[in-house]
């Protein structure tokens, strides 16, 4: 089926062109209201957005075919990530495409504050020629306080160093080595507030960063400080900023982002020393082309090849890796499904071991597929995206082990599941590097293709059993497609995996359970 993508925000036409080139149907409908989006979203497998579209839980509820949301930009605060993850929808962004552009906007606003450019421009164009009114400050030798030294913050730092500023940075995740590399001094927030002549914010909006420039923090700044925010509204207390501008504690502030956007009214508007732009940080033709190309390529790779790049809610998987991993993920999913169907919901732990060729691959998608298969036996909505989160919520202890030993098989995936009764494992390989095949079940060597309707039967190894089994199924009109046998030891426990054409009714399962020597019968579905 041809995947279908909706572009619901204004985006460079290159995005739509790439989707079409790659054989994906695409509709461009920027500016849709929430109800309009909800009315049409069910038809789409991909949704490409910037910051205007709000991908809320109710939009996701209506998006029954949706597999991926692609954000042409960095911040994903307009997407309910938890709701997307719970519904198995991958959310990806383009983390580097607009970093330089946004850093340049922050530097532009720093200059604009230092020389009061917007006010001087307005006054001059009003015919006033107020040469004495607009006395500026130099940037050279001033201290720039960087709150957040990630992608954008570090570009701002390099530009500021080029302008001969001193840069101090507050970022709990900045290592001393990285600070040295950037040429910045790592400081605590209080020291930054006390020392900085200019402060620029470059953090995401999180519970820790919300209101990082609070009323109290603003009161601790160096008098006459100038503040720039090109990151996210909500990092600064806007009411307190207005008071600090009025009192002169803050000499100037430039906001590209606001607590509520679009910001069409604000007590800050018209305040002397205040500059604003309408969330223009990423708005250059270069950045918009970058993010449009990146988001379209990433979403196409995912929809067409299963490649996952820059996903917020699942591990990465390159488009080159994806075809190699695909058969392993199918095998892993089948092994998880087998264990889940036989062991029920009482699972406490899952260990995924890989050896041989499998050990050379990224184990995360294999583990994700095992968990999706395992939990998919009791939840309709579980998939690779939400399985690891659901496993965590259920308190499952999940382990990944890579072996570089030589085994009997050129490649092997083993899934060991722990329940209150102990640990039991199933293992499988790939025939011809592509066909998933079970090779061991709970310590018994048994080879089977896990497909369609099957029966898992444990019985005492005794002559005549297979005949009775065949007769019972035959009398019930159930055709046996394949029959796979294994046993722990002669005369001990034997295992049969029987592929049948069609479902086995509960009454027939009961009849089989009643056969002499039968210990367990579980109908399976793959
Ligand atoms: N105005 C715009 O148009 C525009 C454009 C692009 C990005 N942005 C925003 O800019 C922000 C930064 O983007 P980025 O690409 O540099 O992100 P990033 O993830 O590369 O960097 C964020 C930095 O913030 C740091 N950080 C996290 N919590 C912190 C805390 N409590 N205190 C101090 N530092 C903390 C992190 O350690 C990290 O180094 C994001 O919010 C993004 O959405 C805005
Ligand atoms: O798309 C935009 O214009 C804004 C992007 C910016 O906020 C981001 O986080 O990348």
Automatic annotation (TrEMBL):
Domain D-isomer specific 2-hydroxyacid dehydrogenase catalytic: 5-313
Transport listed as a keyword: no
Catalysed conversion reaction: (R)-2-hydroxyglutarate + NAD(+) = 2-oxoglutarate + NADH + H(+); (2R)-3-phosphoglycerate + NAD(+) = 3-phosphooxypyruvate + NADH + H(+)
PROSITE patterns attached to this UniProt entry: D_2_HYDROXYACID_DH_2, D_2_HYDROXYACID_DH_3
Record bears the keyword Coiled coil: no
Residue ranges annotated for the D-isomer specific 2-hydroxyacid dehydrogenase NAD-binding domain, each copy included: 107-281
Keyword entries, A-Z: Amino-acid biosynthesis, NAD, Oxidoreductase, Serine biosynthesis
ACT domain segment(s): 455-516
EC number: 1.1.1.95
Pathway note: Amino-acid biosynthesis; L-serine biosynthesis; L-serine from 3-phospho-D-glycerate: step 1/3
InterPro entries assigned: ACT-like_dom_sf, ACT_dom, ASB_dom_sf, D-isomer_2_OHA_DH_cat_dom, D-isomer_DH_CS, D-isomer_DH_NAD-bd, NAD(P)-bd_dom_sf, PGDH
EC class (word): oxidoreductase
Domain annotation D-3-phosphoglycerate dehydrogenase ASB: ranges: 324-441
Pfam families with a match to the protein in the record: 2-Hacid_dh (PF00389), 2-Hacid_dh_C (PF02826), ACT (PF01842), PGDH_inter (PF19304)
Gene Ontology terms for molecular function: phosphoglycerate dehydrogenase activity
Family the entry assigns: Belongs to the D-isomer specific 2-hydroxyacid dehydrogenase family.
Function of the protein: Catalyzes the reversible oxidation of 3-phospho-D-glycerate to 3-phosphonooxypyruvate, the first step of the phosphorylated L-serine biosynthesis pathway. Also catalyzes the reversible oxidation of 2-hydroxyglutarate to 2-oxoglutarate.
Protein's UniProt name: D-3-phosphoglycerate dehydrogenase
């Amino acid at each position: 089926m041809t995947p279908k993508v909706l572009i619901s925000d204004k985006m460079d036409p290159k995005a739509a062109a790439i989707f079409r080139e790659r054989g994906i149907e695409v509709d461009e409908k920027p500016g849709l209201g929430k109800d309009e989006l909800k009315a049409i979203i069910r038809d789409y497998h991909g949704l490409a957005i910037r910051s205007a579209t709000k991908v809320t839980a109710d939009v996701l509820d209506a998006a029954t075919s949706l597999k991926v949301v692609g954000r042409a930009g960095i911040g994903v605060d307009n997407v309910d990530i938890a709701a997307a993850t719970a519904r198995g929808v991958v959310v990806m962004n383009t983390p580097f495409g607009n970093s330089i552009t946004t850093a340049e906007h922050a530097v532009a606003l720093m200059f604009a504050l230092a020389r009061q450019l917007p006010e001087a421009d307005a006054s001059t164009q009003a015919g006033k020629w107020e040469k004495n009114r607009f006395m500026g400050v130099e940037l050279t030798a001033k201290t720039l306080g960087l709150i957040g030294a990630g992608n954008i913050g570090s570009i701002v730092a390099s530009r500021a160093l080029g302008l001969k500023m001193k840069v101090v940075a507050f970022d709990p995740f900045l290592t001393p080595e990285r600070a040295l590399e950037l040429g910045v001094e790592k400081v605590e927030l209080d020291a930054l507030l006390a020392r900085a002549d200019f402060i620029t914010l470059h953090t995401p909006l999180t519970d820790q960063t919300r209101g990082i420039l609070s009323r109290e923090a603003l009161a601790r700044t160096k008098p006459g400080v100038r503040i720039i925010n090109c990151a996210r509204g909500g990092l600064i207390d806007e009411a307190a900023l207005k008071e600090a501008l009025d009192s002169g504690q803050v000499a100037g502030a430039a906001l590209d982002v606001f607590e509520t956007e679009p910001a069409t009214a604000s007590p800050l508007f018209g305040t002397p020393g205040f500059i604003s732009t309408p969330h223009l940080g990423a708005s250059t033709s270069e950045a918009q082309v970058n993010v449009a190309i990146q988001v379209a390529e990433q979403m196409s790779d995912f929809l067409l090849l299963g490649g996952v790049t820059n996903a917020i809610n699942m591990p990465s998987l390159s488009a080159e890796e994806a075809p190699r991993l695909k058969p392993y993920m199918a095998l892993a999913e089948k092994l998880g499904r087998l264990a889940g169907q036989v062991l029920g919901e009482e699972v406490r732990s899952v260990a995924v071991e890989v050896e041989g060729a499998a050990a050379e691959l990224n184990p995360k998608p294999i583990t994700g597929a095992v968990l999706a298969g395992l939990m998919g036996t009791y939840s309709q909505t579980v998939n690779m995206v939400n399985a690891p989160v659901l496993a965590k919520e259920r308190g499952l202890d999940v382990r990944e082990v890579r072996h570089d030993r030589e085994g009997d098989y050129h490649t092997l995936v083993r899934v060991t599941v722990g329940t209150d009764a102990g640990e039991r494992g199933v293992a499988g390989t790939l025939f011809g590097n592509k066909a998933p095949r079970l090779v061991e079940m709970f310590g018994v060597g048994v080879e089977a293709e896990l497909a369609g309707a099957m029966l898992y039967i444990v019985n005492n190894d005794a002559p005549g059993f297979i005949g009775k089994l065949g007769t019972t199924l035959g009398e019930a009109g159930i055709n046996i497609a394949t029959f796979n046998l294994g046993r722990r030891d002669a005369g001990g426990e034997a295992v049969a995996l029987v592929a049948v054409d069609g479902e086995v009714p509960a009454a027939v399962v009961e009849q089989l359970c009643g056969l002499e020597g039968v210990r367990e019968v579980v109908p399976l579905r793959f």
